[in-house]
Design brief:
With 219 residues, the protein is α+β, with helices and mostly antiparallel strands. 23% of the residues lie in helices and 32% in strands. The two termini are 32 Å apart.
Amino acid sequence: MRQPPASARTQLRRHPERGAHDRATIDAILDEGLVCHVGFVADDAPVVVPTLYARVGDAIFLHGSPVSRMLTRIATGVELCLTVTLLDGLVLARSVFDHSVNYRSVMVFGRAHVVADPEQKMAALEALTEHVTPGRWGDARLPNVRELEATTVLALPLEEASAKVRAGPPGDDVRAEGTAVWAGVVPLRTVAGEPQPAVGVASGAPLPAYLEEYLARRR
């Protein structure tokens, strides 16, 4: 696990006390998140695309169709910026000016490269599947040769990254604002709902054990 040094692009200027460059903090946020946003320039215009991802060691993996504009563009080695944000709570202050949110975020800069080796592609797809739903890879049908060829996998090295975290209560001054207005934090989290079986699944069929475990963690 390489420790990315602070760079001009990852050095926080606004609230630098909330910043972190250690891999433990960065990896924890990346491993908890499910969706990232990938920013790049295409046809002289900025584009930001949300997509699934997975971190394995010192790299973040992305995947999709070979005709995807995002994958086609960043496969050429253009500079990109990948971000992940976890929203933890609404911070309601006594003053509207001091309202905020509690969050954990990561920003990664760099250039991605194509994963061409079939075994490495399969390993990356396994990581992507397991990141979303642990245990699913060993239960569902695995990609065949045609499906593997119809999938592009890119790896973005974790060489230039930083985290930013805001936690805690409102920062307004109780003495200055008074106490008549309620203030505090409303926690937020992602939860799982009731599974909805697809057509063809037998009525009353039990859920796989790994899915039961997932639901227990997400409820």
